[in-house]
Amino acid sequence: MGLSFYYAFLVYITAVSAAVGSSFAGSTSTALFPPANATITATDTFFPNASQVGHGGPTPTGDEAAAIATAPAVALVDNVFPLVKPATSDKKPGFDILQHLGNLSPFQSVKSLGLPDASARVPDGCKITQVHLLHRHGARYPTGGSSFAAALHTAATSTGFNTSGPLAFLSTWTYKLGEQTLTPFGRAEMFNLGVGFRVKYGDLLKKATDLPVFRTTSEERMVDSALNFAAGFFGVQSYKDDYHQLIEIDDELGKLNSTLAPWNCPVFHSRVAGFGSAQALKWANIYLVSARERLSPSIQGLVLDIKQLIDMQTLCAYETVALGYSAFCGLFTEEEWKGYEYYVDLHFWYGFGPGAPYASAMGLGWVQELISRLTQTRITNFDSTPVTFPFGQPIYVDATHEIVVSQILTALNFTTLAANGPLPTDRIPPNQTWFANQLVPFGTNLVGQVLSCPASDTPTHIRWILNDAVLHRGIKQRIAEINFEFDCFGNYTTPNPDNIIDGRYPQSAHLM
Questions:
Q1: How is 143-184 classified by DSSP, letter by letter?
Q2: Which domain CATH number covers 385?
Q3: What is the pTM of this model?
Q4: Which H or E run includes 464?
Q5: 36 domain-assigned
Q6: Please, which residues have CB within 8 angstroms of residue 152's CB and are 6 or more apart in sequence?
Q7: What is the per-residue pLDDT across 123-166, written as a single tens digit (0 to 9) for each?
Q8: Cα 458 → chain centroid
Q9: Cα–Cα dist 501/196, whole Å
């Protein structure tokens, strides 16, 4: 073959390599669909829509479902198809890693949250008159890159790098994750949540006098979650015409505020907010010691530290919900996965839950809106109108982040969830009650059932269901107890963690 062919082939290979990224350890690999240079020569006239084609066949609709009241039991979500459930390194039977990934766990129903005999089904003799749904977005890509992938990629470019044994796969592993947007599995989670909510509560739509207003925030994964939920709830053909989607600005810098993105809380952006990650790291330095000793001999050229091991466990979670499977999952034992679960529990308890002095204040706005909706009393100091914040809807749906769900749960004062706090950082306590994977997994949903007991059109109380498990009510006088101005704007340092169990700064403490 001539040199011209050789150089042409070399140019081709170089172009392909640039397009797909480097293929050695830790490098980033991406794909774009549709491809950047793709062109479609056919016009829409070649692809008429269903109304133009016609011949749709019979189209009468049936009656609305009300399975939450009519079925003898509530259907539970207990599978994560099409994700592959991984095994631990010690191959313990019956242990499901995907139920121990904290806030990165795929959604599965919780059987009990302190009330083992309670059912989400509407009690006999009662009638549901209204429902309030607060849910998290579906499974997403990480909010940033991987520190482990970056360190691995750097190590792989140096001499002396080698992997073997359980880490042999790292020699060809590439980082394939996107950033922040929903994964295909996350879209399915939201669609299925919408379908399930229609089957359970669709009968309430008969009480509607106008199109409902559902709310979300402006980040892409939030909007996509809301739209996928609506497509499941209303149907893909008509959902855009069946409701109004209110999108509130999600300002991570905290200059603007929304009850679904309550970042306008200066303390939340201060060093006090790092307390949760600091407490969690104390535990990581205990539970991951044996993993570091076991895995370190299998890699040369990179010294594994505790933070990299945490990142490897986190990669197991993100790769599984994005790619369907992750080889990182099988690197750790059952005990180490229980340790990771508790690591996330500590992070949420002290960062966004009952152990965070600002958590209740940040969840307060949504609780105030809830009371406003229930009492039909307008909040005059909130920037909303009757059009964007209507009263009298039979169904309310709000989409938010897991951090906000944790803060709202804390503001609502569900005391059974905080029963065994404060959480220690040197051991996993017995009879634990605060589990991030049960409270704030991908697709987590909190449902407020407004009931009339005995059955009538006059509501008597509200009952809370979190991920299909009944919660003990605890919101009495809660709004008056929370000092928003001090907890969010006060000039204080991190208080003694033993004094915080309800997401508020200790009331006996002085301004520092």
A1: SS--HHHHHHHHHHTSTT-EE-GGGGGGGT--B---SSSBPH
A2: 3.40.50.1240
A3: 0.92
A4: strand 461-466
A5: no
A6: 25, 26, 170, 173, 302
A7: 999 999 999 999 999 999 999 889 999 999 999 988 889 999 99
A8: 34
A9: 34
